[in-house]
Design brief:
Layout (H helix, E strand, L loop, with lengths): L12 H12 L30 H11 L12
């Protein structure tokens, strides 16, 4: 473990993305949207019309701000 190759503070996302990128040869983008202690119903897609006041709407805003219109997959852990 070193400053050039730190371990920790990122959760499993970065390691999953690196593995997926190596396995597929494709670029993988990570857009963290976690909120500890949230309930699954707070992520209901019906909330997208509420914009950033819903967790789902806020997630869509982050995705679009990153320049993406379509999501091909996501990791929920």
């Amino acid at each position: 473990i070193s400053r050039q190759k730190p371990i920790g503070r990122t959760g499993p996302g970065i390691y999953f993305a690196r593995h997926l990128a190596a396995a597929t040869g494709r670029n993988i983008g990570l857009i963290p949207c976690a909120l500890g202690g949230s309930k699954i119903d707070q992520w209901d897609p019906a909330g997208k019309s509420h914009g950033d006041s819903s967790l789902y709407g806020a997630m869509l805003h982050r995705v679009r701000s990153a320049g993406f219109e379509h999501i091909k997959g996501l990791v929920w852990y």
